Amino acid sequence: MHNNPTIGAKTLKLSDLISLGLNVPKFKAIDVKELKENIEDFEPLAKKIHEELNCEKYAVRSSALIEDSQKESFAGQFKTKINVEEQNLASAIAEITDHARKFLGGSIEKFSVLIQEYIEPDIAGVTFTRNPVGGRELIIEYHKGRGEDLVSGNIKPEKLKLYWTDNPTESTLPSLNKAFLDFKSIELFYKFPQDVEWCIKDEKWYFLQTRPITTISETEYKQSLYLDASLPEEDFYYEKTEISEIAPRPTQITKDILEKVYEENGPIQLAYKKFNINYSSINVLKIIGNELFVDREEELKTLMPSYSYLKSSDLRPKLSGLTGIFKTIKNLFFIYRINIDDYNKIFQELKNAIENEQKINTVQEFLKVFEKDYQIVFEINLFAGISMKNIENLTKNDIALSLLLSQGGQLFQGDESFKLNIDSKNLLGNTIEISDESNFVRNIQGENKNDEMKEWWGKLSEIKKTMLKKKIQQVVVYNKLREMSRWLVVKRINQLREILFELAGKNNFKNKKEIYFAKLEEIVSGKISQNVCEERKLEYEKYTYFNMPKILTNKQITQKQETQGVSPGKAEGILIEEDQLKDEKYKNKDKILFTRVLSPELVKHFDEIKGIVSEQGGFLSHLSIIARERGLPVVTGVTKETLKIGTKIKIDGNTGDYKDLA
């Protein structure tokens, strides 16, 4: 790496690539001083350069001193001339310089020119050593022909995605394995993700240019490096699922409580046992950079050990062998036989648990009560999922699903008795996370009248209506019960918080909230250390600014991203992330919130936004339920790759459609 005030970074970095042992076409720089001295006539200079390089054809490129910096690349802003013959070299230099003078406001004080041997490529491409819209993978785009067609966006390129732990052996690109190592060496040299232009001629790789990827922040890069170091080398598939929505960034206490749920004879196993389902107790939770993931392969094998996600090309469950086949068949049989008709019974169990004002004085008492309550919560979640599958199979229509969940109560009577007496005046939080102290939201409003619902229903045959009516009733009721079960969890977490604060006081904690970082076993045994909790908190805070994707895997997948509307309505606004809500430049502007996970604690922002787009989340997400009650449009299944933060977008929570209005 160099620092030369008269030559642009584009040229200087070619010298770096040579020092790395990479194959770079011959080149010569015309620095600022030399350019100014020859501004009236470039013929002598062009002749001198040709004598030195002696190439058949040349590429004449800008090498402005403001180009290819860490903050701005100015990609495509300056002119380039390719396939230039010797007799046209001087005029090409003049043309490039004249264009730059106009761009730079009449001055060439910050401009130099790069003369490079032109290679007529068989294949041209661009490599991003990290995904430019976030992600740890390396992206290669290429096509047969010249690079100018690729970078101009005139053609749709071939695309490869490689994780840094991959060992590519087969590809249409020759010697890809060696080139893959070369690309990684470039990033390691600059200690930052790079955008590398290259070409192949007669199966030989030529490196033409490298510059920083300006759309990646230092934090995002640190996240990629963290993942490279933390994730396993063997095949894995981790995902943020529904449980991630209720504890996106669990502290130590929350993590321990969640793990209790999965233990032998824990609430999940006991819930399944009621239906003769053989569930293997395995801790499937993974904490990665503070964020909660589920090991989907292990989760699948708890019920269906003969199936696998990792054996399929799109991460969908696939029969992978005969090991555990009898358990798999038996469990599937009993899962399909689960009867969800008697929702009054489970509502009564939920009602009794919520309205029971039993005093809980110790963590041991809390765990006993919580595990019993969570069995009810899990059963409701299970029934809600089954009711959704039933209605999906009958409607095959996202618009109908969205309308059903928001206005379905119009179509039947009978849920008026689903009322709960819960004192929410002093409750804090909306999730299972102990540190969540957002204002508690508990209201379930009456069904919103909607002409679209009536229109859709009116077009159905009487036979179809008869088939659907009972299923609609189930999905709407379980939709409500699932939200009410969240209230029970929040109530219990508030009781635990009081117990913990009392313990923190007895143990002379300066900051009582640091006890959230004690382990349950330490609290139960009475061996609580403020210093240890403080150290864990500091370690936790190292990753506060990480924002992980919804899926982490080392598998090359062809999974199609599908969007869906989960809360009806339409909205327009500037797409922003949560930490930008208080930014002055967005004040008094309509805003659409982008989030990775539909966490219920986001309800605190409802008054500030017009809608939400999310990577993760479904119809039965707690936030979706609350959003439907509030009339806030929500679209899920949207990745950062498909939208740009800071631009104006339009979303439709009925259809799942979204559009960039920039």
How would you explain this protein's 3D organization?
The chain has three domains: 9-218, 2-Layer Sandwich (D-amino Acid Aminotransferase, Chain A, domain 1); 239-311 and 322-540, no CATH class; 560-660, Phosphohistidine domain (Glucose Oxidase, domain 1, 3-Layer(bba) Sandwich), CATH 3.50.30. With 662 residues, it is α+β, with helices and mostly antiparallel strands. The relative contact order is 0.08. Helix 10 (267-273) packs across helix 14 (363-395) and helix 14 runs antiparallel to helix 17 (462-506). 38% of the residues lie in helices and 16% in strands. The two termini are 38 Å apart. The strands form five sheets. Strands 16-20-19-18-17-21-22 form a seven-stranded mixed β-sheet. It has a five-stranded antiparallel β-sheet with strand order 7-6-5-8-9. It has a four-stranded antiparallel β-sheet with strand order 1-4-2-3. A hairpin with a 2-residue loop joins strand 8 and strand 9 (204-212). The chain has 20 helices and 22 strands.
